From TrEMBL:
Top EC class for this record: hydrolase
Reactions that this protein is recorded to catalyse: Endohydrolysis of (1->4)-beta-D-xylosidic linkages in xylans
A Pfam family that the UniProt record links to this protein: Glyco_hydro_10
Similarity comment: family membership: Belongs to the glycosyl hydrolase 10 (cellulase F) family.
Name of protein: Beta-xylanase
Keyword Glycoprotein (UniProt): no
Top-level taxon in the UniProt lineage: Bacteria
Organism: Halalkalibacter kiskunsagensis
Residue intervals of the GH10 domain: 1-344
InterPro entries: GH, GH10, GH10_AS, GH10_dom
Keywords: Carbohydrate metabolism, Glycosidase, Hydrolase, Polysaccharide degradation, Signal, Xylan degradation
Record-listed E.C. numbers: 3.2.1.8
Amino acid sequence: QVASLADRYEDSFDIGAAVEPYQLEGRQGKILKHHYNSLVAENAMKPISLQPEEGVWNWEGADKIVEFARENDMELRFHTLVWHSQVPEWFFVDIEGNLMVDEEDPNKQEANKQLLLERMKTHIKTVVERYKDDVTSWDVVNEAIDDGGGLRNSAWYQITGTDYIKVAFETARKYAGEDAKLYINDYNTEVPSKRDDLYNLVKDLLDDGVPIDGVGHQAHIQIGWPTIEDTKASFDLFSSLGLDNQVTELDVSLYGWPPDNAYESYDAIPEEDLQDQAERYNQIFELYEELGADISSVTFWGIADNHTWLDNRARQYSGGVGVDAPFVFDHEYRVKPAFWKIID
Ligand code: G3I
């Protein structure tokens, strides 16, 4: 039995993995129990999974993950109460059956806004009441910032402005209680312009009394991007507001952007790439450890290379073929060079 990742970082932060319910068994279940002390659902707790139609709830997959975390004494992150993606369309349809974003009458716009916020509150209340005894960290709002600057022009934003963010956090706090840790989560938080936009939003919300405990940094990174200086600057910036940081969706892609030259198979990946990836993992975990109390949790967005959202992305840009290999366990669950780097 090799050394455990969770044990290695026990004094610094939790080590988590994103999972689909079917991954809790067999070989993957064993890896989860040995190496991780925290779990998050890759898809099973998103609004489209939990409430596909208004008032119709689907708890099966989510409950399995909660059960596994409970049985194995693991922390549980919740992903995600509010997001612009993987949210069913019914949230944004008015009482006449039209899309709220198309409404031009100001009176009806206001009524739509209230209806949408009510639906959001009902969703949050129902979910939080069910899982509050198990979940320790909540992604309350995911990806509110636009890559091009300012706030993302999602349906949430078009219909409610920033009120949806404020109300989401207040509702989560109301039902989850004072001990729950509430996060705003986003990707590319290392990019200076985006991290400044996120900082300005969070600062305004905090000044307004909105209960935010921390920032979730997705950390979908590459071997050569972003720089370690930008990564550190982002953690430091949010720590300066007195907030916690969590690394919520870590993976290290073998490719740059766009991933238009993906390797066709695992066998085609050069050893050199795996060594470079190991150095990158080493660099990033050294930073995480150095930051110590500023980071409470580091979650990988998957377990092993046989299951990663990055495969779809690589295929999309590489003519339909290709694999990525972003984790520290390979496609057959063997430890990779990166594993030894972060253990040692
Ligand atoms: O479940 C259906 C299946 O029934 C259907 O046959 C199949 C056909 O495409 O789709 C399946 O759903 C897919 C789902 O993953 C479950 O596998 C969706 O198409 C696919 O879009 C979805 O992708 C997820 C993606 O979020 C959606 O935006 C990825 O698994 C998931 O890793 C990814 O996670 C996001 C985080 O939530 C937020 N941050 C970025 C991260 C990566 O994109």
